[in-house]
Write a structure and sequence with these properties.
By secondary structure, the chain is an alpha+beta fold. The protein has 2 domains: 190 residues, no CATH class; 168 residues, no CATH class. The protein is built from 11 helices and 14 strands. Strands 1, 3, 4, 5, 6, 7, 8, 9, 11 and 12 form a 10-stranded mixed sheet that branches. Helix 2 packs antiparallel against helix 10, helix 7 runs parallel beside helix 10 and helix 9 runs antiparallel to helix 10. The longest helix has 45 residues. The mean pLDDT is 81.
Length: 388
């Protein structure tokens, strides 16, 4: 039985060059499906990974009660001071509470890729030591009380004019760029400065959030209880990983339509293309299949032969599509812009992404070959061998 299956399969695959035109249709269709899936999944997972990298178990973020993001939140300055003195907060090397009152202000800058205006966030920090992952890679840190900025590596790569020594015009004047920082997180999309200076320059009466570094992850419950039971405050307290996980979930919803709906539409088109091609292949092999059946080869070998051809074409299309996506996207940066700022990250194509796309291609190939394979197995031998 196995020998019969192997012989019929090899015989069928050997005829692909004679059906080159129709075979290319399947390869191109699968290639397009895989290319779209790899590119969109890579964008979604890279952006999601950049957001999740912000969260640390020993940090907590405090927002105005009912707010779901920093941009929706606004806390009075006196509330921020009360939060910074809550129990459970670690201390900096200088003995101050490890708490930063952050203000986010969007500004429009010229994007390098198309010279269009796009938003970038200026984040005011009151205590840089709360986020030790921020490392100055060029120049120096901003000085408190001075109109100075440090720029994230991703922001510098995306926008014009963000080199050390340049000046950026914000709302009420020019600010000097004194450094570049890296963090390995989505914060590299921002520009950083002193919170009080930014608050004064933009005439704001409060801050968007307060982020604290806790004495330990176990100190979160006591810290949260102290704030949520304080009648003078109306705040929500979240572990930082939980906050960014919710942000990433919103991003995943954004990509759901493109990834699954558009991908499914393209996959359906590829299935119909494979069906048409495999039916044509079975039609071209009618006498060949009938002859094999007359010689005693079973229907199982014929079915596997047709499915093997569909699967081989699908794998070829998948490999080509994945290779094209790798060349076009791997290592590039993507900017997801909005009115509040841009989320910029480097695209990384992972093996799980490639594996998922290739498995999808195999499924499309098998679905496209299934009905033609059944037709080939049921082909009446006498009718097929009857001369016209």
């Amino acid at each position: 039985m196995l020998r019969q299956i192997a012989v019929v399969t090899v015989f069928g695959l050997g005829g692909i060059p004679r059906r080159l035109g129709s075979s290319i249709v399947v390869v191109v269709g699968i290639m397009a499906v895989v290319g779209v899936l790899v590119s969109v999944l890579t964008m979604a997972r890279s952006l999601e990974g950049a957001l999740l990298a912000n969260g640390r178990a020993d940090r907590a973020i405090v927002l105005r009660g009912g707010a779901t993001s920093e941009t929706q939140s606004m806390l009075p300055v006196d509330a921020a001071a009360t939060i910074a003195n809550a129990p459970g907060i670690a201390r900096t090397t200088g003995g101050k509470p490890a708490a930063t009152a952050d203000l986010l202000v969007p500004v429009n800058l010229v994007r390098r890729s198309d010279h269009a205006l796009a938003a970038v966030s200026v984040r005011g920090l009151s205590e840089l030591a709360v986020r030790p992952e921020i490392e100055i890679t060029e120049g120096r840190a901003f000085a408190p009380g001075v109109r100075e900025l440090v720029v994230g590596r991703a922001a510098r790569a995306t926008f014009d004019g963000l080199e050390v020594g340049n000046r950026v015009t914000l709302r009420d004047g020019e600010w000097s760029i004194v450094g570049v920082f890296g963090s390995g997180t989505s914060m590299e999309s921002d520009m950083l400065t002193d919170s009080s200076t930014l608050t004064s320059a933009f005439a704001r009466s409060g801050v968007n959030s307060v982020t604290v570094r806790l004495e330990s992850p176990d100190a979160f419950d006591a810290f949260k209880a102290a704030l949520t039971t304080n009648p003078a405050l109306s705040v929500d307290v979240l572990r930082e990983p939980d906050y960014y996980a919710a942000e990433a979930a919103d991003l995943a919803t954004l990509f759901f339509f493109v990834t699954y709906v558009v991908g499914a539409i393209m996959a359906s088109g590829a299935v119909f293309g494979a069906l048409n091609t495999m039916y044509s292949a079975v039609g071209a092999r009618t006498i060949e299949i009938a002859t094999l059946r007359a010689l005693g080869f079973g229907a199982t070998g014929v079915v596997i032969s047709v499915l093997a051809e569909a699967l081989l074409l699908a794998l070829l299309g998948a490999l080509i599509g994945a290779a094209i996506a790798w060349v076009m996207f791997a290592g590039n940066t993507i900017s997801l812009g909005g009115t509040e700022g841009s989320l910029i990250t480097r695209l990384t194509i992972t093996w799980p992404t490639l594996r998922a796309a290739v498995l999808c291609a195999c499924a499309v190939g098998l679905l496209g070959g299934l009905l033609p394979a059944i037709r080939a197995a049921r082909l009446p031998v006498a009718h097929a061998l009857r001369p016209d």
